[in-house]
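Sequence design from tokenized structure. All designs in this work follow the same two-part layout: the structure record, then the generated sequence. An example of the structure record is given first.
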């Protein structure tokens, strides 16, 4: 096959990919518009209870009101800081624990049943204990954001460490590599895809942990706005908080995907 024909086929393939991306974006936009239009019409026509389900126009008006008085920025800032700290803490501690388990097979055998038990336990049930132990402050909420993801991170990353091809380790050991060097040169790089996948899962888990923590203890944050909205029967405030959470959780997820692309590109 001539080089010219190969380039032509490559260009056609790229155009096909571009068309597919545009088609996907168009359908995503149509679903978005259809959902909010139907919601607005249903509320105005009272096909659904406007008090209970509010409407996009009321939520938009409240968004402007809360933005203008600065209360949304304050509450969003608190929740965002707690979530990012809980996310980083949970991921770091989980990865370090996984490394420790890989380092010591004996410790891994001893702790294996406890990890299974802790993973099956609903972590949000530990909320009241954390509040008593750490106090009714930001620390207990960050701990909630971290603890909800740390066990699953440990299990998933440790499994990835174990599944690295043992032939890599044998080659390194043949050349006299220590266990630390084997971990740095073979185990950790080979597990990057799994660690990145875990980060994506942890984004959602950290938001859940922090929002539950704010339900229990906080006087600020998006979780507090949701609880306050329920208490005063202001469901527009509840929906506004939920939509803001959805937007910023998506932004965090996209940032993790960007990190993934950069890591993959740097390893190529």
């Amino acid at each position: 096959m001539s080089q010219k024909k190969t380039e032509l086929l490559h260009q056609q393939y790229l155009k096909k990919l571009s068309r597919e991306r545009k088609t996907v974006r168009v359908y995503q936009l149509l679903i978005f518009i259809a959902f909010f239009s139907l919601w607005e019409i249903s509320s105005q026509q009272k096909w659904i209870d406007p008090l209970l389900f509010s409407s996009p126009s009321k939520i938009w008006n409240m968004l402007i009101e809360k933005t203008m008085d600065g209360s949304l920025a304050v509450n969003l800032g608190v929740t965002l800081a707690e979530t990012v700290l809980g996310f980083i803490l949970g991921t770091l501690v989980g990865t370090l624990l996984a490394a420790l388990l890989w380092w010591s097979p004996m410790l891994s055998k001893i702790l294996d049943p406890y990890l299974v038990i802790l993973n099956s336990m609903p972590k949000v049930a530990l909320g009241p204990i954390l509040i008593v132990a750490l106090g009714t402050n930001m620390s207990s909420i960050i701990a909630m954001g971290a603890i909800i993801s740390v066990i699953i991170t440990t299990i998933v990353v440790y499994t990835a460490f174990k599944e690295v091809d043992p032939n890599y380790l044998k080659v390194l050991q043949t050349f006299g590599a220590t266990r630390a060097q084997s971990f740095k040169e073979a185990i950790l790089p080979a597990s990057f895809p799994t660690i990145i996948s875990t980060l994506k899962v942890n984004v959602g888990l950290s938001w859940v942990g922090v929002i539950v923590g704010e339900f229990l203890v906080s006087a600020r944050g998006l979780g507090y706005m949701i609880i306050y909205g329920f208490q005063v029967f202001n469901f527009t405030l509840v929906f506004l908080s939920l939509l803001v959470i959805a937007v910023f959780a998506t932004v965090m997820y996209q940032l993790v995907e960007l990190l993934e692309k950069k890591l993959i590109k740097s390893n190529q």
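The longest helix spans residues 3-44. We note this feature because it recurs in several other targets discussed in the main text.
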